[in-house]
Amino acid sequence: MESKVKTPKQAVKKAVKAQNMGDLITQYGIEVKKYPLGVLVEGTVVSANPNRILVDVGAKAEGIVKKEEMKDTENTYKTLKVGDSILVMVVKEENKSGFIELSLKKAETERRWRDFNKMYSNKIPFEVTALQYNKGGLICDAMGMQGFVPISHLDRVHFAEVSSAATGSEKDIAERMDPLIGKSLKVVIIELDREQNRIVLSEKQVDSEKNKERKKERLDEINVGDTIKGLVSGVVPFGLFVDLDGLEGLVHVSEIAWEKVENPLDYYNVGDEIKAQVLDIDTNKGKVGLSVKRLKTNPWESVAEKYPENTKIKGTVTRIVPFGAFVQLEPGLEGLVHVSEMNGDLKEGQKVEALVTLVDPAEQRLGLSIRQLEEPQVYR
């Protein structure tokens, strides 16, 4: 009987059947990776369904992510498709079926730090949720990890909401921060230290790179002395922050009005439109100093004509000092009743009549006397 001649293909098939995978690997010198328990591995998704994910990790056997090891805080498994790269942790070197058991869930922390490094290096903005106030700022949920936004790195609007209590107690500041708890903030990472588990975030630096060109354009458009319009973006004890369409302006509290301003909130609120004069421009920082009061007449310029000596005036006591009392004749214009020119005790808010005894516009001094008005015979 004539024996059949085996083709080369048939011979190879027989050889493969006669040898196991280990023999073939040894025979052909194929380099196969081995991964110890707990190591992080990058692989490629071979198949994915709600119950398991198969991953090619370059080993003798494929890796498998079982259902209980698939779910991380962002449910990454739901978006995976064949061919995607994936970072997993080895939780069992080989199971009964010959698979390397892997975990998406346990590799999450490493993935987070890799993501943070990328966002930190490229200044990529992302959203966090404010969880609670801690001394000096907000503790936030940053993609399942804890981040910190210092008060000084809140944006202008949020900073304005809390800064008026910045000189108060921790309780005062915490109460001011309370409306931000639970809110989403867009931030960038400004400090990253894995060893210290430290992630410092900034809300105010978001889009700072994008705004550089616009700031430069705006700086070229304005000059000292110009009158410009803007929107109040923040109200703080020391003045008003003003959004000038790409630039940040500041109206110092002393430039809000000619009279003494105790609280800027008595004059403006966030969102108010404002007209001001440009006092100075800092091209390096892209900031502009503004004045509202310079667009109004300085009452001291006409004081000599309106209130010459021996003029009888009516006013309101605004301050009591050891050497007398200050009386407001009109907004921005106060005179002093020296203690020697008073006729009895005065109190703040009291309406009084007095006689003008001194007018000095250059030094912005206005002398008043109640005694000379009430006891004129003494001064004849």
Automatic annotation (TrEMBL):
<feature type="domain" description="S1 motif">
    <location>
        <begin position="117"/>
        <end position="204"/>
    </location>
</feature>
<dbReference type="InterPro" id="IPR035104">
    <property type="entry name" value="Ribosomal_protein_S1-like"/>
</dbReference>
<feature type="domain" description="S1 motif">
    <location>
        <begin position="225"/>
        <end position="293"/>
    </location>
</feature>
<dbReference type="InterPro" id="IPR003029">
    <property type="entry name" value="S1_domain"/>
</dbReference>
<comment type="similarity">
    <text>Belongs to the bacterial ribosomal protein bS1 family.</text>
</comment>
<protein>
    <submittedName>
        <fullName>30S ribosomal protein S1</fullName>
    </submittedName>
</protein>
<dbReference type="Pfam" id="PF00575">
    <property type="entry name" value="S1"/>
</dbReference>
<feature type="domain" description="S1 motif">
    <location>
        <begin position="310"/>
        <end position="371"/>
    </location>
</feature>
<keyword id="KW-0687">Ribonucleoprotein</keyword>
<dbReference type="GO" id="GO:0003729">
    <property type="term" value="F:mRNA binding"/>
</dbReference>
<dbReference type="GO" id="GO:0006412">
    <property type="term" value="P:translation"/>
</dbReference>
<dbReference type="InterPro" id="IPR012340">
    <property type="entry name" value="NA-bd_OB-fold"/>
</dbReference>
<comment type="function">
    <text>Binds mRNA; thus facilitating recognition of the initiation point. It is needed to translate mRNA with a short Shine-Dalgarno (SD) purine-rich sequence.</text>
</comment>
<dbReference type="GO" id="GO:0022627">
    <property type="term" value="C:cytosolic small ribosomal subunit"/>
</dbReference>
<keyword id="KW-0689">Ribosomal protein</keyword>
<feature type="domain" description="S1 motif">
    <location>
        <begin position="38"/>
        <end position="105"/>
    </location>
</feature>
<dbReference type="GO" id="GO:0003735">
    <property type="term" value="F:structural constituent of ribosome"/>
</dbReference>
<dbReference type="InterPro" id="IPR050437">
    <property type="entry name" value="Ribos_protein_bS1-like"/>
</dbReference>
